[in-house]
Amino acid sequence: MVKGQSNKLDWVDEAWKAELKANPLPNHNQENFADALENDWGGQWKQMATCTFRPGPYEMMGATKDGEYTRNMRVSWLEGDRIVKRVGRDGQMIKGTRGVSPGWSAEAAERKVHKWITSDPGLRKTRWCLVIEPHKHRDCYHGHVLFSHSYKVNWMRACKSWEDQQGRFRVENVKDDQGMAMYLAKRYMGKEYGSTNFVFANSRNCRRPQPDPAPKIVYEYQMMTFLNDYNNKGHDMVGYRSFCKKFGL
Fold it and tell me: Whole-prediction pTM value?
């Protein structure tokens, strides 16, 4: 984003922070899903990405003012734009207001996140599990992805790819001092597990997972270099590739 421009998606951060406090304890479904993540699909999850779609111009909700969610008047029945809805056989134009955009469905969101992973040369070599969850205030879904073996990912490239095409992106290292069930309860999607609202997918290498060879310090330094570049801090840091070579990666 160009420096000085206002970020129309700042409210996503506030909704995300509120979500962290919403489920302090894991429920039964979250426990089951956490067990699969830890024991069936390899565990050792190192990083989590959150992929959010930018608001569409014709969503019912999504326009914000002073942190408040407001109706989008462009699709209002009375105040909305008058457009041609249908043309009769005699050429007569029937006008009306725009319909509400359905937003991103769970299936469409899953396809977009999956394509983002498989289109990136670094991401597609990782072990991953993605989960799609509905947004609380929009007719839209967003995705979370857990990664392992992601020490070779160029996060600046992956971030730019998502933000240029879809919307807001964030990535962070998983806090390994918390069990995966608690991590799901506080930061991830597990509460809908077992329902029709729950959409998830994982990589083929989850079937025969291998241990991640990169130590924790490598992921910590990777995130430091990413944030340094992303925020244009310009700190003089050892190149990430040179850092990895010290660990034989």
Answer: 0.76
